[in-house]
Design brief:
Order of helices and strands: HHHHHHEEEHEEEEEEE
Number of strands: 10
Radius of gyration: 23 Å
Distance between the termini: 93 Å
Oligomer: single chain
Strand order of the largest sheet: 1-2-3-4-5-8-9-10
Structural class: alpha+beta
Largest sheet: 8 strands, antiparallel, barrel
Helix content: 10-25%
Length: about 260
């Protein structure tokens, strides 16, 4: 072995091994895929937790401290040049925004009264014990920005708009998940699964158009009891807490 080879070998043995590269911080496809299946704000907030929570909190604090307006994403990009990439550094794929998400979704039969555009107007609250007394029953709670669309071909789209309170001043994303609405049990209270197949999160983050393509993401595909009475659609989770969500038809059907 040459002297140069001996020196190289000795250096390799004595120098510490290189530390593995850290994963990018901030929100990624996993967070947006989680939000895409949420109905209530509490669920969305939980999806934006974990490694996503601290960078988002820092970005919101920065954009507010700098006095950026609710519609001024350019200000956030300019004043928070460190916080922006930390919050949204990973998971964005170059892709056009999907205009017709139901185009490639398998057709499934659904009752005519399910078809339409529905907007969430309330949800049951978890029971709370006050002053040591009995827990009150479920009460309606306003939830905003969540839209549930069911097409005549049995395709659903669950959509939520996240804005400045979640993503920093002027930033926004429309998060959507879609797939076939599969009915496991017919009747007045049908049992349905939101078979989420794909989704997107598209909008403006730190003055840049961003698209998070959610194809191939791991979706939970939740199951609900579904009931429609006139222009009110109700989804009740099959989980032990039986969380209930009430939607109203955006455009009432003609009688």
């Amino acid at each position: 072995m040459s002297r140069r080879a001996e020196v190289a070998l000795l250096a390799a043995l004595l120098l510490p091994a290189a530390a593995p590269a850290e994963e990018p911080a901030g929100c990624e496809r996993t967070n947006w895929a989680c939000v895409a299946e949420c109905i209530d704000r509490r669920c969305s907030d939980a999806c934006l937790g974990g490694r996503c929570e601290a960078p988002l909190k820092a970005l919101r604090a920065c954009s507010q401290k700098r006095g950026c307006g609710n519609e001024d994403s350019a200000c956030t990009a300019r004043e928070c040049q460190r916080e922006c990439p930390q919050a949204f550094g990973g998971g964005a794929r170059e892709a056009p925004e999907e205009k017709d998400p139901c185009a490639g979704v398998p057709k499934v039969p659904v009752p005519k009264e399910w078809v339409g555009r529905w907007t969430v107007v309330g949800a049951s609250m978890e029971p709370m014990v006050q002053d040591g007394g009995a827990a009150p029953g479920a009460q309606p709670r306003a939830d905003y920005g969540k839209v549930f669309v069911v097409s005549a071909t049995g395709c659903f789209v669950m959509q939520e708009r996240l804005g400045s309170p979640s993503l920093g001043q002027g930033n926004w994303l429309v998060v959507r998940g879609w797939g076939p609405l599969r009915a496991k049990k017919a009747g007045k209270r049908a049992l349905v699964t939101l078979d989420t197949r794909s989704g997107q999160a598209a909008g403006t983050l730190c003055d840049e158009p961003r698209v998070f393509d959610l194809r191939g993401a791991q979706f939970q595909r939740p199951t609900y009891e579904l009931k429609v009475e006139k222009d009110v659609l109700t989804l009740t989770a099959t989980t032990p807490d039986r969380q209930t969500y009430e939607f109203r038809r955006a455009e009432p059907r003609s009688r």
